# Entry
Amino acid sequence: MTLSLHRGLAAALLSATLLVSVSAASAETTIRRGNGGEPQTLDQAHISIDVEGFVVRDLFEGLTIYDPTGKVVPGTAESWTVSDDGTVYTFKIRENAKWSNGDPVTADDFVYSWTRLLNPDEAAEYAFMLHPVKGAKAYNTKTGDVAGVGLKAIDAKTLEVTLERPTPYFLQLATHYTAIPVHKGNIEQFGKDFTKPGNMISNGAYVLTGFVAGGEITAAKNPNYWDAANVKIDKVVYTLTEDMPATQRMFEAGELDVVYQFQADQLDFLTEKLGADQIKVAPNLATYYYVFDNRTPPFDDVRVRTALSMAVDRDFLSEKIFTNSYLPSYAFVPPGMEGYTPVPVEWSSMDQLDREDKAKELLKEAGYGEGGKPLKIDIRYNTSENHKKVATAVADMWKAIGVEVTMQNLDVKSHYAYLQEGGIFQVARAGWAADYADPENFLSLLTSENATFNYGHWKNADYDALMKQSYAETDPAKRMEVLQKAEALMAKEQPVSPFLNNGSLWLVNRKVKGFENNAVNEHLTKYLSIE
# Structure
């Protein structure tokens, strides 16, 4: 009887253990990501900021993607070849690449998606990214037709892309939002509503399941994704608030596993409190800058723009607000581009006190300040504790040279929508992170034809001519020299005032594995896991 009781107890314990093991194995794994802000849209033809990209790149996948280290690797395309002259790329799309509804992903999907984005009627803000494709710019600017665009589906799984000229960063460009495919039938059925949960058909690691404005976005693992077997996380919840103190508290309470952006001046405090292993700070190919609205006085005067730029103490911003996680910058193009040396402003080596004196002189020459007209400036910035602190510091620096300053802020999607749609302003905070590691990606923002991202509407014929010359130059070294001339001209004119080279700031719970710092600040959920 005693032996029988022991056997029964052992059997019961074994059964309970197996039940717990099966339950643990089948439990849904969820990661909660503090997204840093709310997307304006999830339509690849109209997204333009990082908080949109973090979500869209989990839902959709281009021909190429970034791995955890920031290296370009095969995505939906398993391989590619390049012609000897560097102008024809032939991509082989994976046989098992499927849409979330089970349809195969084909070469025609990319032809459709890219031409949809280039269609001038679509008015895609980022269409210029595909201009290296032969005939793309002509079609996009209504000087050519779609038949002249260098996109061809050789067969269902082979895509041929012909470029206007060799483009060394083209594989990086292929990772971009603009190069992400959309499902033709999905667009035809729902139109603009294809981005809604329940409507959207995607080809990435995840499928959109919910979108509560001002709250959160949810996504579930896509069982039809070609690499689904290696996707460890079943559900992603993106919290959309821009409130950094709130997301820091949520992280500390275990309510968020990953948080994009925290109060940079608390870096040392957070490192001590949370542990260095949960703080991720990495330099980016990115620039933090203020832009002047060049359309209206007094910002159409180079003396005023230069004076305001000179008065900003970049060392103070770097040390006191960003705890040296962002570094002082006097050039628009960030360092780290192969073969290129950024061109700083001529006065970058001046002492800050001397700069302030010179700034006052320039304002006086322009008719402002002591003995002249009062200069009143309104600074616009997108909601963020870091941006608020920068704006407050800059306001104090400008007050020191006799300028009256007010400030206003909007949420990130409204702020950038206003700038991209041509809204009138005086001075606005902006930032740009490299879409590809080439100085052209920054310098092209300030051409007169870039109506979307040339927020200050600066126009300079000589600058436009230099940029045009760079596109025609096939010798790599000479091309970089032309781009340096363009940056030198821009630095002299100061249509924008670069302040800092950005760093990416993340809080990452130590139970999250697979998160690595990289210069492109891309962290696909498909590479992450929860320990």
Notes: The two ends are 44 Å apart (CA to CA). Confidence is low (pLDDT under 50) at residues 1-25. The chain has two domains: 34-207+509-530, 285-502.
